[in-house]
Amino acid sequence: MHDSAPCIEDVSGVYVSDGEVNQIVERGALCRTDMAFDGAPYTTIDLSEIDTQMKSVPTQEAFIGKMVGAMRYFFGRRDGSYSDHFPQQNDENFPFKGFVFNGPPGSGKTEGVKEAGRRLHRELANEGIEVRLFLIGPGHISHKNYGESEQRMRRVFQDARDKGNNNTRTILLFDDVDTLLLSRDDSRAQEWTGALNSEFFHAVDKLQTNHTMIMATTNKEQSLDDAVKSRLWVEDAPAPTLDEMKTIAGSAIPMKIVNGKTPDEMLKLAGERIEHHLADGRDASFRLARMAGIEVLIREVVGWE
């Protein structure tokens, strides 16, 4: 991957979380020789499942609704859809290829795309259309062997095209795309990153948006190569309001009196923790809200002082 970086050659049997993979790959500190690089360079998300963990709040609902509407327009067949408005369009030449959603970590970008995919999967089934979602992170693509990262990137787009049919639509969710496609001006950029970027841009230029759409996420818009921004529409993921964050924090609060404190009293404490973190300059996010609820749980219920 990087000649100058130390390498962990044998990682078989070692568990590494997605976030850690992204950080390690970004540093160039992991040679994934013993991991399943012969497998698909993405994870297929089961869109038939219902997400019981997502807490519905208006800001996130509006964000998901916009994503569903955009994908419905390009993927559907009904009156008012892309295929209705552009019946003679050469699909490869249509300039819109997808989105990049920008926002701080924990702002609901990735889970929002997944939920939008679930809803679209159910909706377009009525038109005889199957919707799939491939999740792609740096850990799926980056590899130490020369040319292998580019091959794996190429396969993502090949599988999106070849494994489907006229009744199949594919969402390509590139998670933390800034760590995968480094800007040419980035001090970390090397020859192999430029080759990977070129492979991505070439594949995107040939993308048929009415069959495959990119939904990428980043928390470092400034690190994105200008060529990414010229191909994908960049939108900010909306931050939850303070009241919404307090609602989300409640998911970690017991719904009964514990140690003399009622749920309302514990929720008030969680709200105070949220306001404290925001005053310290933390970005408003779903993750921050859940963390505040857990802080109260650990301090007031578990009793960890």
Strand fraction: 5-15%
The CATH architecture classification of the largest domain is: 3-Layer(aba) Sandwich
**Name of the CATH class of the largest domain:** Alpha Beta
Assign the CATH topology of the largest domain.
Rossmann fold
Q: Helical amount among residues, as a percent range?
A: 40-55%
| Strand order in the sheet with the most strands | 1-3-4-5-2-6
SS content category: alpha/beta
Number of helices: 12
Overall average residue pLDDT: 84
| 3D shape | globular
Largest sheet descriptor: 6 strands, mixed
Tell me the number of strands.
6
* pLDDT < 50 stretches: 1-37
> How many angstroms separate the termini?
44 Å
Total domains, how many? 2
* Radius of gyration, in angstroms, nearest whole number: 21 Å
User: What is the assigned CATH homologous superfamily of the largest domain?
Assistant: P-loop containing nucleotide triphosphate hydrolases
Instruction: Encode the helix/strand succession as letters.
Output: HEHHEHEHHEHHEHEHHH
